[in-house]
Design brief:
3 domains, 13-stranded mixed beta sheet, about 350 residues, alpha/beta, 4 helices
Length: about 350
């Protein structure tokens, strides 16, 4: 996504007439994605509405999975939230809450039995899955819509490696220091006080990572929603959204790439020496609020917006044909690098 978006923006900035087709294509693609997301959201809304109507029945399932202190857990859900927290000891404790709504109490009880929660243990690895009837089984039970929601509350040993995915539901993890990979199709993804986070991704929902330290790369992305990163230490950060803003506050990172097609990119915090920040938006503002005394080198480009810096810059060959829309300069020792690009938006560099 970074390469395609950057190419489109640079072409637009360097040769706006020749870039009209690229910009139009990007806009059409964003409209197509939003249309798909509306259908997904409508389906999820219909499912939620059906779960709120009629009598309900609930079943609770509790299971202990013995994977050791450095094991791996893989959770996959269809409809419902997944909440993972730090536990004590060496076991995974799973609570699954199935809730069904039907035309009657008997109908709801029958629906409960059609959706199963499966557990598989293999040495130091465990899998948890929800299974809904498909194909012939669904036809045999004369069920077109199965209104059953499964919510997972899971506690894990602190160093557990976790992969968790929900089709329609939020996924969150708190105070888990093992490698985390959390994904949702329609729902938010939240990670707090994590460690060794590989990724947090959503198709339709916000992605938020806070108070987390990662030795390597952290990736956070969504198609429709905001990406929010706060109080993060990482070797490299990649954050992106198609339709939504990207917010980065108080990060310590030598390499940051943040981009969005439709939304703002906002950074607030201190720069570090020899760091490089690449912030890009097609349709939105780029704002940077800097603390500390680290100097920086900046290159900023905006096709149809303005550029403002509260820092006194030593200019280096800014384009006189595009006043206030392109800038190259250095502040202080220039030890950090800011690469800022927007097609339709303003760029502001301020003191925090």
């Amino acid at each position: 996504m970074r390469t395609t978006l950057t190419l489109a923006l640079l072409l637009a900035l360097g040769a706006p007439a020749a870039a009209q087709d690229i910009v139009r294509h990007a806009r059409e693609e964003a409209i197509r994605i939003r249309s798909v997301l509306r259908h997904v959201a409508d389906d999820a809304q219909r499912n939620r509405a059906s779960r709120q109507e009629g009598p309900s029945q609930t079943e609770r399932i509790n299971r202990t999975l013995r994977i050791g202190t450095n094991g791996e857990l893989d959770v996959a859900n269809i409809s419902g939230d997944i909440t993972i927290t730090r536990g004590s000891g060496s076991d995974v404790i799973v609570e699954a809450i199935k809730t069904a709504r039907g035309e009657s109490d008997e109908d709801a009880r029958e629906l409960l039995q059609l959706v199963q929660v499966e557990f598989v243990e293999r040495s130091n690895r465990a899998e948890v899955r929800t299974r809904y009837p498909e194909g012939e089984e669904r036809r045999r039970n004369n069920r077109r819509n199965i209104s059953v929601n499964v919510t997972f509350n899971i506690s894990v040993p602190v160093n557990t490696r976790v992969r968790a995915h929900s089709i329609s539901g939020s996924v969150s993890a708190r105070e888990v220091k093992g490698d985390l990979s959390l994904e949702s199709v329609s729902g938010a993804v939240r990670i707090a006080s994590g460690g060794r986070v590989s990724s947090g991704k959503s198709i339709s929902g916000d992605v938020e990572v806070t108070d987390t330290s990662v030795e390597g790369m952290l990736q956070a992305s969504t198609v429709s929603g905001e990406v929010i990163l706060r109080r993060i230490k990482a070797g490299q950060l990649e954050a992106g959204s198609i339709s939504g803003s990207v917010v980065v506050d108080d990060v310590e990172c030598p390499r940051l790439e943040a981009q969005t097609v439709s939304g703002d990119v906002r950074f607030s915090g201190a720069l570090t020496r020899n760091s490089r920040f690449e912030l890009t938006s097609h349709s939105g503002n780029i704002t940077i609020a800097i603390t500390g005394g680290v100097g920086f080198e900046v290159e900023g480009n905006s096709f149809s917006g303005s550029i403002r810096s509260d820092f006194p810059l030593t200019l280096q060959g800014s384009d006189s044909r595009r006043p206030n829309r392109t800038i190259r300069g250095v502040y202080g020792d220039g030890s950090a690098v800011l690469d800022l690009t927007t097609f339709s938006g303003n760029i502001v560099i301020s003191k925090r």
